UniProtKB/TrEMBL annotation, chains A, B:
It comes from the Eukaryota. Signal peptide: none annotated. Belongs to the XFP family. CDD domains: TPP_PK. The keyword Lyase applies. This is XFP N-terminal domain-containing protein. The keyword Lyase applies. Residues 29-389 form the Xylulose 5-phosphate/Fructose 6-phosphate phosphoketolase N-terminal domain. One of its GO terms (molecular function) is aldehyde-lyase activity.
Amino acid sequence: MASSTEEVAAKSISPYGIARSTISEQPLSAEELRKTDAYFRASMYLCLGMLYLRKNPLLTTPLTTSDLKARLLGHWGSDAGQSFTWIHFNRLIKKYDLNALFISGPGHGAPAVLSNSYLEGVYSEVYPDITRNEEGMRRFFRQFSFPGGIGSHCTPETPGSVHEGGELGYSISHAFGTVFDNPDLISLTVVGDGEAETGPLATSWHSTKFLNPITDGAVLPVLHLNGYKINNPTILARISHRELEALFVGYGWTPYFVEGSDLESMHQAMASTLEHCVMEIQKYQKQARDSGKAFRPFWPMIILRSPKGWTAPRKVDGKLLEGYWRAHQIPIPDVATNPAHLKVLEDWMKSYKPEEIFDKEGQLIKELAELSPEGTARMSANPVGNGGVLRKALNIPDFRKYALLKIEPGVSLLPSMSNMALFLKDVVAQNMTNFRVFGPDETESNKLGGIYGAGKKVWMGEYFEEDEDGGNLAFEGRVMEMLSEHTCEGWLEGYLLSGRHGLLNSYEPFIHVIDSMVNQHCKWIEKCLEVSWREKVSSLNILLTATVWRQDHNGFTHQDPGFLDVVANKSPDIVRIYLPPDGNCLLSVTDHCLKSVNYVNVIVADKQDHIQFLDMEAAIEHCSKGVGIWDFASTDQGSEPDVVMASCGDVPTHESLAATALLREHIPSLRIRFVNVVDLFKLIAEVDHPHGMSDAQYTSIFTSDKPIIFNFHSYPFLVHRLTYKRPGQTNIHVRGYNEKGNIDTPLELAIRNKTDRYSLAMDVIDRVPGLKVKEAGVRELLLNEQTRMKNYAFEEGIDPQEIRDWTWPSEKSA
Amino acid sequence: MASSTEEVAAKSISPYGIARSTISEQPLSAEELRKTDAYFRASMYLCLGMLYLRKNPLLTTPLTTSDLKARLLGHWGSDAGQSFTWIHFNRLIKKYDLNALFISGPGHGAPAVLSNSYLEGVYSEVYPDITRNEEGMRRFFRQFSFPGGIGSHCTPETPGSVHEGGELGYSISHAFGTVFDNPDLISLTVVGDGEAETGPLATSWHSTKFLNPITDGAVLPVLHLNGYKINNPTILARISHRELEALFVGYGWTPYFVEGSDLESMHQAMASTLEHCVMEIQKYQKQARDSGKAFRPFWPMIILRSPKGWTAPRKVDGKLLEGYWRAHQIPIPDVATNPAHLKVLEDWMKSYKPEEIFDKEGQLIKELAELSPEGTARMSANPVGNGGVLRKALNIPDFRKYALLKIEPGVSLLPSMSNMALFLKDVVAQNMTNFRVFGPDETESNKLGGIYGAGKKVWMGEYFEEDEDGGNLAFEGRVMEMLSEHTCEGWLEGYLLSGRHGLLNSYEPFIHVIDSMVNQHCKWIEKCLEVSWREKVSSLNILLTATVWRQDHNGFTHQDPGFLDVVANKSPDIVRIYLPPDGNCLLSVTDHCLKSVNYVNVIVADKQDHIQFLDMEAAIEHCSKGVGIWDFASTDQGSEPDVVMASCGDVPTHESLAATALLREHIPSLRIRFVNVVDLFKLIAEVDHPHGMSDAQYTSIFTSDKPIIFNFHSYPFLVHRLTYKRPGQTNIHVRGYNEKGNIDTPLELAIRNKTDRYSLAMDVIDRVPGLKVKEAGVRELLLNEQTRMKNYAFEEGIDPQEIRDWTWPSEKSA
């Protein structure tokens, strides 16, 4: 491969002509070929019908404008290629008794998936009003991209779908998620060449370095070189064959090409190539499973180059349609106003010969209906596509066993996160094929390395001798680490949607990398609630650590707690946010999240050694309530407080408590109520979130008229938006991260954002009526002390010991 | 390349040993080799010093714990490879008089960049207190990763840096951004093999399909196969040579390998290979420029495989250090408490022979200082690295020329966006080497295709005959379209940071894909404000269209206006959000944004034909104020209103106005004040944002005691968080997107979220004291009408005409 001899990129090739393919056998008999093509025509006819018709589905009378939908919506471009792939895989499912799932990357090509689901009968089983006759077909057409109907992506309403594809880029990572620990499954995954340009998709090809041929199934990608996006050519369709082949060899695959437009030869090429790929997959799996030795083969994949909008007219009025970007959406948009174009449409639809493929009642004729597999072997009926039905509850050890013991509130200094790793280790150990931990190269850094004791990191790349020295790599691991939040998240989503359990851990600042993926997952599971046959899947659990308040040393780029704002915009039916203040609360919250279904749970916790507040009993009670008054830190017993010190988040709680101690010392007469919030949505009204409190509950904790000094983990605005309706909301004074940071110590970072103990104590003095004048001396003392500490930190490069090792004055010392 | 003969992935190779390289010449004389190695040792010495020392920088006395920083922070892992690359490029800059910029992908390797900047004298020129002597070196060491000092990434404080790298994945797209329209520039870009696993980086290699060898410069990537991330091996270091080479050929590059650890042979290999690459670049550029024919060569790149933490001890206490992940951060962390390790460190530092490379005063000896280029030829002094100094103001036509004319407020129906395209077309035409438009395959869909009249889409992939049929592709285009928001955004950032201008257009829902990139850019430009020598750069302008309210047909996945929440969390010094209600306001706002510096401007506007409200005069006045009362729609002239109808966003304004018309019709006595907000940050207090209003200004518009029915484009919470402090905030009733959507018509989508005219009018009745009882009949009538319209939409699949084509009752018809 001496590249210097070929300096200028060579030519690509046309999608037109007789099939050109790597495998050139002719596996289909003339009869099989005839039927396969008829089945394909049936699917294409249905796709077009979905785009255009509200009536007259079989075209039993001449097509008129009154048969058309008033608003034409939907996508034609990738339908043919996707349906072509589906239909040819049907033959192999039957021949080899395969367990297969179809993942549609170019999500806008839902008609391909829907038409096949309808043809194989699943659609009518799932939606009994969409019958397999003329009236059912009419309804099937009408509902598509129609208000109250279904979308033009593979939405949750689509049988067999775990991947909507509205936002592009995740088909391959989702597919791998479905096959991990599913050794018999093949996920046939069509990847659009538009989608293939996205970053998340481009790196997800490397997923093969994490797939074990013994314990996992296989992904069979079909890269669909359709040639065009909405208005542009695609990159991969406009590079040389040499580059294209090299790229996928480089990604670790064996690419097989199927290219052309001639139907007869394309059918033979696709049939033989798909079959060859299935044989390859089974060969590698057998080799590994028989020998017990896992290895990483160059897994097969297909590059299918066919015209965009294949089987449409090549030109309309002299303008290119098939094989061009104009075929992307509605291929002929003006049929309602242009009678000539209406005729073009009618002729086109009739070219599929509906009368030969559907009987008078509108049912697919028997000899074609027999081509599809049966029962759950039909790809649209595979239970993996409705993973909740396969979901088995986790076998979770009692989290109380892992309690941090002998807690002296505010005094004990213990590692919350590495303790939690012990719990997670046993969750892994007790669910060795049902639970995985995902993270972008940060699991050890996040103090969760203890998990490796039960399941190491999956690694199918090459091994070096040095890996023996603490590498924690294994062919059969349970922790998935790749430096791509996108791929980790995609794997986890695929793993959950196919009925399993998992947890993603990440540095807090960089979880924004997958804002949009989490958004889309929220939307998916919310919409599933409206689809009666969808069983609930395990929650998506996101553990955020290396949080903003301990990113002082990494600086400004590593300080962003705003993911909570993104999540809080999603439906209250779906999202949960927990900020456990200490180790036992972290255990309790995590246990709760692991057992839950259909949520996106976000847990935010510091990974460093941390001051502890609650023993396990108290932690469970506190977490069950979600918010509570901490008596040990309060001085308002039996009376109204002068001020409420509230906190949410472990580091902010530490500082709030320290501020409370300062006030107790300097203003002993002040009645302070100390409140901690674990469950963020407790703050919101009960009508706005299932976890919300009533105003009565809220005021019984926060009062309706006392100043509240609220120290918050994230941007302070989030608390305001949750509480803006509350009685006494004007008394809430929220401190949090205000986008002020640089290379700091923790103290200096806190001071910049006014979340440090001194600032908080001064806030109290400023806010409690009368105190500012009366306690001006204390305020000055606090300010001086703050300055002294800050100067020390500035000089030494570390926080002073009395800040770092501060604990609540215990009874003895008090 | 018959892959079937080689089915199982072959072995990778070790980073150790004598250099193995594609180019095996020996360009360095013994003398040059000796000096180059000494310079490299100088750099390595400085890197280690930064990590460890606060005193005794030249180790003139034995190393003691008092010389150490109290808290050891920073990264060693990639320093050697990056510095090695820098130093060898210095030779070529001098030899060939190159204009070169260095981009450090593994951002955590800032010591490599900082040490070279210090060695070539730039650091002391920029920061005069960091002198080139012992005391300056001491300060240089101490400030690193030290409070009040500088970070361990290439932060804005780093001379010559346009790429911080705290969040990984953008080095290549940033690099391409710097060389577009910079034909003489070579951006030497080190890509970490950790970074290379991210999605954004993985697809950005395809940027070559958008680089014109005549009008653009070149990117020379050095993929640094360091072998390890924080705790894991990297994928690219653990695949076979065949895969690695194929991958980059597939991406369209010519990879040259430099692999090994032996310094002498590695110096020769790197010197010869870098030189060969520069020759290749110049050859291709000459060929294209001499012939006037652009083409896409297989541009050269280097794969540098060297041990992680190269030149560190291979083992410490029997545990691997050099060549393993333990070398990632501080290589020996316990030197303060382990005297033996302190000695290891001292011996290691002395192995670089500081006494041979620095003179007694601590200055780099003359024969080494002469190795670096001079003046702005030094990579850390290249003005491109401080693009603001190169920035020329745009030559912008008067936007008033493009005004939509003869506006009858609330009646004229005109295309705001395609009209704006005419303005942008002329901006392109008048700034043909200084302004580009970026978008992920959506420019035409976003009705901005008019821009192609001045500058087509850049395309260096292959051309097909069919491109003649409206393809709008060109070698020398001005619009950049790749289906990767990450790459488009990265290119634009690089283009701006190197002193040019641009605009990104995107569908609103999928802008979340680059949340984290925009976050990081905000942080970069905010921090630049604190760096006195940084000149301001053009603003990052993001135009969002295909907005939530017109994504009814695409469904739930395409409905997410939450990007505004992400942006609103950033510093008020940086972020601006505009929601122009109509076409003339869109022009005015865009003109303002294009002229601004150092902001992230977000503009949200509908792309469809839209009802117009203001003629150009009025639009300019309205946009200058940012918020205003619209008299034509108000009925409270000269008196206090009963209710304030407020709106923000074009579609919401349309519905608010329609609600106002309904109320005028049915409750003519009601005094309504109609308020529109263009500049979102007007809502916030003046102390919290430079655009904020005083409470007096606010209440003069919104009143302090009247109900406000606020129809908002995005999630309603955002308005609450901006106004929670305002007098009368409890009277603000905000409607907006509430995460309710499916396949709908626009009307049905609005009804689901209660932002439609009927819901808003009923809100008024419910909120104005006394009205609910008094106007119960009107309320019922509105409800019935809403139901009737909804049913029509449901039945027909389109909104009824009276909704779609609704306009404000004009004087004549009223």
